[in-house]
Amino acid sequence: MNNYDVAIIGSGPGGYVCAIRCAQLGLKVAIIEKYNTLGGTCLNVGCIPSKALLDSSHQYHDAVHKFADHGINIGTPKIDFKQMIARKQGVVDQMTKGVDFLMKKNKVNVYTGMGSFVDATTIQIDGAKKETISAKNTVIATGSKPASFPGMEIDKKRVISSTEALELKEIPKHLIVIGGGVIGLEMSSVYSRLGAQVSIVEYADSVIAGMDASLGKEMGRVLKKQGLKL
């Protein structure tokens, strides 16, 4: 059984940055990730892929609505949605490979599988094979998952989370987004720019309600100007 000073469960921005810093301080470090790629939600199905699609949709929107004002005439742009998704995945792959490199560079041992405690210092890892390691200290950095609610469970077909929204096969005609937080607004902006009718349902008085009220007010104004329904 391998022994470590620190074991980290979860390889998202919290986990892998913690692993690097611990290794830099001279500790023997292991990181445990249940998925096949490192980086957690942010790199794989969150911040990075959403920004890639935001960039692509912004380019398309400018080509349709602004290029002519600059004297750039390109006819009517067409969306190759399959290529747009492929580019997004290419960005993700590049970033996750970067995290792999950082783990190797800092001599952090990576275990792929589900980590669970046997006792306070022993962790069992259920992956392609079962392994057990010991650690003097453990950091739990397992992140979060999309929430569902009664009557509208996520079936990944008609009712989807942001994860599935990043992998759609076609642009929907009408998309209802429940939640006017950062993630909901990113997906709303992407598909609205690409031609979908988008309706945002938010319980609070404004979108991005957890931020400054003036920001929510301004964001609401911008979204309505873009044609989204709040």
Can you describe what's shown?
By secondary structure, this protein is α/β, with parallel strands linked by helices. The chain folds into two domains: 1-144, 3-Layer(bba) Sandwich (FAD/NAD(P)-binding domain); 162-225, FAD/NAD(P)-binding domain (3-Layer(bba) Sandwich). It contains seven helices and eight strands, in the order E-H-E-H-H-H-E-E-E-E-H-E-H-E-H. The strands form two sheets. A six-stranded mixed β-sheet has the order 3-2-1-6-5-4, with helices on one face. The radius of gyration is 21 Å and the shape is elongated. It starts with a strand and ends in a 5-residue tail after the last helix. The model has no long low-confidence stretch (mean pLDDT 95).
Give the tags:
40% helix, FAD/NAD(P)-binding domain, 230 residues, 21% strand, alpha/beta
**What share of residues is helical?**
25-40%
Query: Strand share of the residues?
Result: 15-25%
Radius of gyration, Cα only, in angstroms? 21 Å
Number of strands: 8
Kindly report the name of the CATH homologous superfamily of the largest domain: FAD/NAD(P)-binding domain
Number of helix segments?
7
What is the CATH architecture descriptor of the largest domain?
A: 3-Layer(bba) Sandwich
Q: Can you summarize the main beta sheet?
A: 6 strands, mixed
The sequence of SSEs as H and E is EHEHHHEEEEHEHEH
Mean pLDDT comes to 95
Q: Quickly give the structural class.
A: alpha/beta
| Outline type | elongated
CATH class of the largest domain: Alpha Beta
Low-pLDDT ranges:
none
| Biggest sheet, spatial arrangement of strands | 3-2-1-6-5-4
Q: Give the domain tally.
A: 2
Distance between the termini: 56 Å
Please name the CATH topology of the largest domain.
FAD/NAD(P)-binding domain
